[in-house]
Amino acid sequence: MAKGASISGFPEWLPSERVVEQRVIDTLRKVFELNGFIGIETRAVETGASLLKKGETSKEIYLLSRLQEVGQENDTPVEERLGLHFDLTVPLSRYVVENSGRLVFPFKRWQIQKVWRGERPQEGRFREFVQADVDVIGEGTLPDHYEVELPLVMVAALEELRPYGCPKATVHANNRKLSEGFYRGLGLTDIEGVLREIDKLDKIGADEVAKLLVLTCGATEAQAAACLELADLTAADGAQLREKFDALCAAHGIATDGEAYALAIQGLDTLAMIIDKAAAIRPGSVIADLKIARGLDYYTGSVYETFLDGAASLGSICSGGRYDNLASSGSRKYPGVGLSIGLSRLVSHMLHVAGAHASRVSPAAVMVAVWNEDERDASDAIAAKLRARGIAVDVAPTAAKLGKQIKYADKLGIPYVWFPGQDGAGDEVKDIVSGEQSPADATSWEPDSMSARQTVVLD
Amino acid sequence: MAKGASISGFPEWLPSERVVEQRVIDTLRKVFELNGFIGIETRAVETGASLLKKGETSKEIYLLSRLQEVGQENDTPVEERLGLHFDLTVPLSRYVVENSGRLVFPFKRWQIQKVWRGERPQEGRFREFVQADVDVIGEGTLPDHYEVELPLVMVAALEELRPYGCPKATVHANNRKLSEGFYRGLGLTDIEGVLREIDKLDKIGADEVAKLLVLTCGATEAQAAACLELADLTAADGAQLREKFDALCAAHGIATDGEAYALAIQGLDTLAMIIDKAAAIRPGSVIADLKIARGLDYYTGSVYETFLDGAASLGSICSGGRYDNLASSGSRKYPGVGLSIGLSRLVSHMLHVAGAHASRVSPAAVMVAVWNEDERDASDAIAAKLRARGIAVDVAPTAAKLGKQIKYADKLGIPYVWFPGQDGAGDEVKDIVSGEQSPADATSWEPDSMSARQTVVLD
C-alpha cells in the first residue's frame, strides 16, 4: 500500500498496485456485461433520511457540510442533510424508484464504486473502499431463479481473477425465512436479535453465542442449543437438507402444520433449489450453510457470504441476499436480489498474500530515445506512428546520456528502447532485457506478444 | 439526465446515457495509456489544511463529520477535519510528496475520478462531477517540452471522442509570466488581482473589466487599457507573437532591459515554443490567447483553456497549466504541468446537444428464450456456451408467452433472440429487427459484426 495511507482507513495504491485493482475492475465488468448486466453509477451522496432508513451500518455515516456553513450544520435536521453512501444497494433502490418509468424490469445492473463508512479509525478497517455489485430488481415480483444465477455470476467473476491471485471462492447460502420459521417454531420472538447473535458464531464461538441468546433474546438453554444445531446443519443436496431439517424440527417439537414451519419450508425450498441448481452447473461453488445470518436487516430471503480457500481470516468477500421491501413507491414494490464484492479487501489480499503486481509500472511497451533536444521532434514523430498502430509509447524525458535514458525505461519496466536513425541510417529497437538490438520500422514493427501489454503477474 | 437529479447539482445518468459516459472514460484512458501515462486513484478526502492551501475554490469544500459526532464537529479545527477533494491536482501533489521514494520521475499520470464542490445549489452547476486529468510531475526540474505535449495529448483524446458527438477542440494557451511581466512593466503590483479581473473578460466584457481594474487593482485608465490590449493580442506563430508583444511594450513604455520585461520574455519563449510546435504536429490545435488567466492561483507559467467549436456557452471544458510550487517536501520541489477535462459537462453536451446515446440499453447481443421454467436449464446452458466465446447474453426473465419475451429483448435493444431446439430439433436464432430466423449452433454462431457490441451512436 502507498506508504502514505496518511489518513487511517483511506487506502491508496502505488501505481503497480493500482494496475491490479484496475485489472480486477475491468475483469468483473467484463463478466457482468457478458451476463447482460447494465452498468450504472449513482451519486456519492444520499439524504440522511435515506441512509438512516435501513441497515446496521446506519450509524457509520459521514455527513457533509459546506465550509461556509461550519457552525450552523445542525440548524438542518440530519434527515435533510447529505451523507456519503455506505453501500450501493440503498442508492440502487432509490435510483430504481426515481427512474422506474424509464427502466426495463427485471432491471439487471452492475455497479462498481467507492463507498464510505464513518467509523472510528481503527487498525485494518477501511473507511473508504470500492464495492462491486450485481443486483436484479423486479417490478412487483421477482422470479427466484435469480437467487441462484446471481451467486453463480459472482463465482464466475471471481474465477476469472484466479490467474491474478484470487483463491477459489465458495458461496455459502442460507435463507432467512428458513431460520425465522425455525426460531418461531421453537417459540422465540426476537428474530432480529437471534440472527444478530448467530452472525457472531465465527467470531466468538458457539458457547458465547449460546450465552448471548439466553441473555439478550429471551431464549431458554434448550432453545439456544436448538438454534446452534440449526446453524450447524450441513447437507450435500436439497433432498438431504430437507431430510435433516425435518429431523431437527421433530427433535425440537416443531409442528409441521403450523405457520412457522410453513415459513421455514418456503425458505428451504428456495435454498434447496439454489444448491441443487448450482451443483449441476458448477459443482462446489454454492453450498448451504445455515449459520449465515447477515447483519443488514433489509434481507428477507436468501442470504449469501463468500469465502476464499485458505483465507478464512479475510471473512466474507462477497455478500448479499434477497430484499423484498427495500424499495417501494406507493403500493408498488421492487423486490431485489444482489451480491456485493468487497473489492478493496480482495485486492489487498491479492497484493499482499498472493503477491500480485503489474508486469511493469508504465503502460508503455516502448520508450523512444532522444539524441538531443533539437531532435526531439523526430522521436515524437516515431512515437506518433507507433501509437497510431495501438502500441503504447513513452518518449525519453530528456536528451540525457543514453545510459540514463535506458535506466528511466528500465525503472518503469518498459521492455523496448527505440533509437531513431541518425545521418541517414534506419531506426533500431533494443529489447533491454535480452540486450538484443535490431533494425525496426515504426510503420510495421510489433513488440513480442508477451511484452505488448501491461498485465498482472504473481511473485 | 435521470429524472431524479433529485438532489440539485448531483447528476445521475440513465443506463443509455451512462454508456456514453463510460465510453468517454474508456476512450480517454486508452489515449492516456498510449501516451505512457500511468493511472492512479487517490482517496476522495484530504485534510482541511491541504484543501485550504491553494485555489480559489477553497471556499467551496464539503467537510465530513461522523454521524456520531453531530453537534461536536466544531471541536476539531477545520484544518484537521476531512473534506472531499475539489480537484485532482491537489491530491496528486500530496500523493507525489508522500510516495516520492517509490515513483519514477518525471511521473506521468492519468486520473479519472469524481470531485465535489460545496457550492450553494444553483441552476446548472454541478456539485459532484467527474474530472479526467493528465499531469507530469518532475523532481526538482521539469522540461518545458511537456508544456506542449500535454495539451496535444488532450487534443488527441478529445479528437477520439468526435464520433460520439464531441465537437472539434482548440486549446487556448497563455503564460502567466508573460502577463505578470507586462503588468509589472506597466507599474502594476496587484498581479493576482489583475489576473482575476482579466479572467472575467468573456463573462462581463472589456468595459466592465476596465472599470474593475481601476476600482479594485489600483490601475490608471491607461494601464487598464494596456492590460486589455495585451488580452486582445493574437498571433499566427511564435515570431509574430514576439513582434506584436514588443510593439505593445514599446507603445506603453516598457523598458526591454528591466526585470519585468525579462520575466515576460521567459513566458513568451515558452508560449512561442508551444504554438510553433503544436502547429507543426497538429495545425490549429493549440493557439495563443493572451486573455486566458485561469482562476486557480497555483499556476506559475503556462495556462490553458479549451473550447469546442459551436459550444461557446459551455466555456472551457479542458483547463490547466504549469504549477511550480504546489508540491514540495523540505527544500525539494516537484514542479508539474497538467490539464483536466470537465468530463461530466462534456458528456452532458454530447448527450443533450449532439444526441449521443447507447446503440442499445443492454450489453447483451442475444437473449435466449425460455419455453417453460422446467426447461430454463437448457436455455442457461446455451447462454453459457455463447458467453464462453465472448458473446454477451441475457436469458428471458420468465417463461412468458413468446411475444412478451421478445418484447423484453426489444425494449433492451437486444438484437437477437435465441430459440432452444425442442423435441430433437436444432436451435434457431432470430434477428428481431429484420425478422430473419435461421438455424444456429451455440458453439459456432457469431452475431453480425455491427450488432456484436453495444456502442454509442448519434441521433
TrEMBL record, chains A, B:
Domain called Aminoacyl-transfer RNA synthetases class-II family profile: residue spans: 20-363
SUPFAM superfamilies reported in the protein's UniProt record: Class II aaRS ABD-related, Class II aaRS and biotin synthetases
Gene3D superfamilies cross-referenced by the UniProt entry: Anticodon-binding domain, Bira Bifunctional Protein, Domain 2
Segments of this protein annotated with the region Disordered: 435-459
Alphabetical list of CDD domains matching this protein: HisRS-like_core
Keyword presence, Hydrolase: no
Similarity field: Belongs to the class-II aminoacyl-tRNA synthetase family.
PANTHER family documented for this protein: HISTIDINE--TRNA LIGASE (PTHR11476:SF7), HISTIDYL-TRNA SYNTHETASE (PTHR11476)
Name the UniProt record assigns to this protein: Histidine--tRNA ligase
Organism of provenance: Bifidobacterium pullorum subsp. saeculare
